[in-house]
Queue: 3 jobs
Job 1
Amino acid sequence: MIRACSKKVSFRLSENLNSTISKLQISTMSNPLVAVCQMTSTSDKNKNFEVVSSLVAEAKQRNACIAFLPEACDYLADNKADAVSMAEPLDGCIVQRYKDLALKENIWLSIGGVHEAMPDKAKVQNAHLIINNKGEIVSVYRKIHLFDMDNKDTGVRLMESDYVRKGCEIVEPISSPVGKIGLSICYDMRFPELSICLRNMGAQILTYPSAFTYQTGAAHWEILLRARAIENQCYVIAAAQVGTHNKKRVSWGHAMIIDPWGTVIAQCGERRGIAVAEIDLNMLEKVRRNMPNEEHRRTDLYPSMFPVCS
């Protein structure tokens, strides 16, 4: 009898524990889900789009309401001349395919960086698009910080400005099903004044779609992204290119989602795929209340360095 009772008590405890866990899981699922994507773009536009389509379909299957894709998700050319000649305007075929995909899957898309053709066809712009679930472009940001390096000591010359025309506007954060998203691209993450401007403009999520080089990624990627999350008390979502694109280029990967406390809550690693996490805006507001950084910012002493953007 004692053994029988013991088994019943154990069963009830187990049942109660499972019920509690189930309730907790249900309660946390009230927050919207986002998917951060990782891929290895090449010069083949069609194959790249096939990968994008599969990643977005997986994001939808996992109940994400927005999928974040990396910089150069349209293509990574083998040389600068091809990077310019392959570019299309935003009303071209490739962007239309992204719009159709968003509509088909009923999901928002952050297209982290497409090569936008310029009228003079001399250079391109690096454009970050937000497309809603109706297949409409609702925001466009053009990369304002270009990565230029001509190191005579190492012989390394990487000049993005040779073929990319820099943007000239900080774009107001866009309202989405997961909160207000502030748009940036890759190298922008090294300039904290941009993220502070976006926070002051109402951003709750900062996004840095990237094609980070392997060497700099290993040294700085996570540190920079966590710093932007902590100092601005925002979620940070950084989609990434990964692996070998061609004979000249290898990307770091490690696409990640970071919460406003600076904790990495989802990460892809070093292979193609997606990672999913919740966006809890109540948690974000709690962090901001408990650590009211913005109330203490001395803009009277350094207004020109960190302007209040509007």
Note: The longest helix spans residues 2-28.
Job 2
Amino acid sequence: MAIEFPEEIQGLRQTMDNVLAVVQPERLRSQIAELEKKATAPDLWDDPAAAQEVTSALSHRQSELDRVIRMSERIDDLEAMVEMAGEDPEEAAEILAEAEADLEALKADISDLEIRTLLDGEYDERNAVITIRSGAGGVDAADFAEILLRMYLRWAERHGYATKVMDTSYAEEAGLKSATFEVQAPYAYGTLSVEAGTHRLVRISPFDNQGRRQTSFAAVEVIPLIESTDHIDIPDSELKVDVFRSSGPGGQSVNTTDSAVRMTHIPTGIVVSMQDEKSQIQNRAAALRVLQSRLLVLRHEEEQAKKKELAGDVKASWGDQMRSYVLQPYTMVKDLRTQFESGNPQSVFDGDIDGFINAGIRWRKNRHNEAQN
């Protein structure tokens, strides 16, 4: 069946118009100009952390602007290619074959770009802090937690996003009890928040000498990183702070001072551990920031729960188990909310999870729209 290029191109332009209405290139240009002024300030690097935030934000905003401009240019190029085919009958078949390939690539790329327009939550633009905890399943669960950590770090690497592992707690035999890391990218929280929930792995256990099938679980928590404009004051009287020596796998000493920090928020029982930084002061500051982020999310959830109660909305939240990774007796990764699936678990574990994330974002937006109706 011949492709109707004019209709396809018109559809792409309509989608891009929707994207541009949300992305607002002029707003981006204004932000870039402001960040460029800050980046050229002579005292910029007096505060390295603030300087890093400015240069990173500038790079991300410029990349986002370049991406939408280039996407519009690619549609123009496709249209010109189709017109060229009409003017050159001898080369038409070859040109149209190339145009068809470009059309399919454009559809996929614009679909990914369109996902960004669905991220309109209060904290969606922020960096994300992800915590992975092993659940039921013993050593297999600890190993699964480490597999998930690698999966998300590889996903970030594929996209060129900076990551920082903030805390790791190793299990005795293999794998991780828990790990916390930050993803530094625009809309990292909005994008990765659909990964929150319980993940399930089914496989022949490499730790079982009888080769039995084992089901294990790991929990993924995603929170937005606190910003200086947020107001989450925590009185010292509500904090319990313990210091201890950082350690790696098998208890190997990472340093010889008690620099790691465990911070407990007494009223809620929330506990945050940090050991990645070199000093106790740095770890304390990092732990406080993550604790504030979790309290911010808690406050937001309580506000939303109150609104639902007042509105009479008693719909259940997401189920505990949101995705299954099955390696035995067949191979499949399937999201139980969206029904999106992949028959290549190894590719998924190597960070190929955009399909799952995009399907999750669309599913969440549909759920939100249904709740508003």
Note: The two ends are 39 Å apart (CA to CA).
Job 3
Amino acid sequence: MFAKDALSYAAIPLPDRFEHTDDQMRARAQAFHDHMRRRHTVRDFSARPVPREVIETCIRTAGTAPSGANHQPWHFAAIASPALKQQIRDEAEEEERRFYAGGAGDEWIKALEPIGTTADKPHLTIAPWLIVVFAQRWGEFDDGTRYKNYYVPESVNIATGFLLAALHDAGLVTLTHTPNPMKFLTPALNRPASEKPTMIIAVGHPAENATVPEVAKMKKPLEQISSFFD
């Protein structure tokens, strides 16, 4: 909560400083790349429980992300309640049926064929946790008056990336899901009108028979995703 009378600038020494040699940086960068390339989007979940403390710590990691004016315009609703997960699945599948029945258009449906998705979303009830990401369009001072948040989509997207990396590092698998529209999530999770749901992340362990689409392993090479100007 921000206070109107505490918005002045104050500098402190850099609290955390890392000094690595060039060789150490190369090794660490390669190790992180090798670890992250083992991350997979999984649709087949085990019902094996995941401790709440793990989810809490991963959300704390997401909360360390940079944001416009440091307003941290995000909220993460973590759901383990079977009844609430069923409600979310019912509503999401209703939206998905409209999507696959023609709402998406032929081109979009064709693009999804290699992924193998359908309107059925059993992962929303099987995965032990769902994390719904909300973007906060405005905030409130301690006296209740509104203030504007800045670069909200960019900030929330960065924080979501932190969250996915943290969950992977904890040994969990995830599936990002974006039913459209998602407005049913706001009243279901008792969130204020200032917040817009952007994503549902299913979190858990992979099922013994889990598979991934072959096409998911096809990543663009460095020369297609980057340009260097030395």
Note: The chain is about 35% helix and 15% strand.
